[in-house]
Amino acid sequence: MQKLFFTNQNRFQLFSACLGLMIGLILLLSSIQLYHKAKLYNEDSELLDGHTLIIQKKVNRASHLGLGSPNFSKSEIEVLQSQEFISACSPIMSNQFEVIVEIDDPVIPAFNSNIFLQSVESEFVNISPSNFGWNDSSIFVPVVMPHNFLIMLNTFLSASQLPQLSESLVSNVEMNLIVGPRSKRTILPARIVGFTNTFSSILVPNSFMKMANLKYASTQAQLHSQIIVRSVDEKLGLLESYLKEMGYESGEDQLFVSRLKSALSLTLMFMLSLAVLTLSLSIIIMIQYLQLMLSSLSFEIRLMLRLGHSIKTVKSKFFRYFIFVFILTALISFGSFYFLSLTIDHKLISSGILIKESTSIWTLVSLLAVFIIFAITVDIYTKRKIKAQFFS
Q: What is the Cα–Cα distance from 154 to 158, expressed in whole angstroms?
């Protein structure tokens, strides 16, 4: 039956469908993989999402002459909160007391230095409350360090001819925060729970900052030189225009990453649409090839049915043939995609863009979904066509 049905067939249309199917699968897998990596890029060190910005007032000549304040007043914060394209807004709190970080660990030489602390409301930062929470009964103060601190520390160790430290090792370093004026300093144990590129200062929980300012600050007049704002979805451009109009600014790195991710998302959506269109046309062409094959083999199919073969047996021959073709094409497509993905990863890493070299599980899920759709389509169409031959 295998030779009777498939030996003398013109396979040009089948090869064309397989080529389209291969291109569509590669585009589909690549777009999903790149979208997943773009979404996860720098996620470990990005405490803020793509719609959240840290803003401050631009420094100009008037500021040098003392004609303008670099701090946000209460009315200015209320105006920001009232804008329709801003979903949330909150001032960043700073320490109003002296703080010294002291590291006394056998792994590295002891040192201490004056530091600057900041805190934000927990709703704005992408960090687990269980890792970044604090209350009066806490054993230590969790802190998030800027990456520059680790670079500085490793530079110091390298100059001392000592081995450098990774993020996981630094997280276990014993350190203290010495807070308050010299006359009544308090030593508080601290632990590094993460690193960030977003903040240039050391980040502490908001609850700790409020307590420390009340207890150790010489004045309770809080000045806010930075504000954290979150735009409404799809309205980040309106927020940027408003900031320029008001003479405010945000970190260029934040805006660049947000714009890059937005542009990349649009590009990948176009790739995904093109992949779905290519796959749909390829499957349609393959079904048309199946239709032509069944039409040209109408005599042979009727003969097999009259000889006692069941509709299920005849149908399974065609079903297995096309499933084999699909699996072979899918394996070639996945192999091509995998090596293409490795090449792209190596190019990005060599360019200084650090990404994880891994294959997203969603690529395998999408491949399985296409297979199921194809298998169901072939099964239903073949069964109907053979039944029509049987009852004709």
A: 6
Share above pLDDT 70 across residues of the chain, in percent, rounded to a whole number: 81
What burial class does residue 159 get, using C-beta atoms within 10 Å of its C-beta: 0-12 exposed, 13-18 middle, 19+ buried?
Answer: exposed
- How many structural domains are present in the chain? 3
Mean pLDDT of 171-199: 83
Question: With bands split at pLDDT 50, 70 and 90, how would you rate the model's confidence at 226?
Answer: confident
- Name the one residue in this structure whose structure tokens are 């201490």: 112
pLDDT number for residue 330: 92
SS3 call for 7: coil
Reported as a single tens digit per residue, the pLDDT across 27-69 is 999 888 887 777 666 555 456 666 778 888 887 654 544 555 7
Do 122 and 152 belong together in one domain?
Answer: yes
Contact 27, 271 (CB under 8 A): yes
Residue 251 forms part of a structural domain: no
Give yes or no: residues 98 and 87 share one domain. no
The answer to whether residues 170 and 146 touch, using CB atoms and an 8 Å cutoff, is no
Instruction: Centre a 10 Å sphere on the Cβ of residue 312 and count the other Cβ atoms it contains.
Output: 10
Please check whether residue 91 is in contact with residue 118, taking contact to mean a CB–CB distance below 8 angstroms.
Answer: no
Q: Based on the domain organization, do 331 and 367 belong to the same domain? A: yes
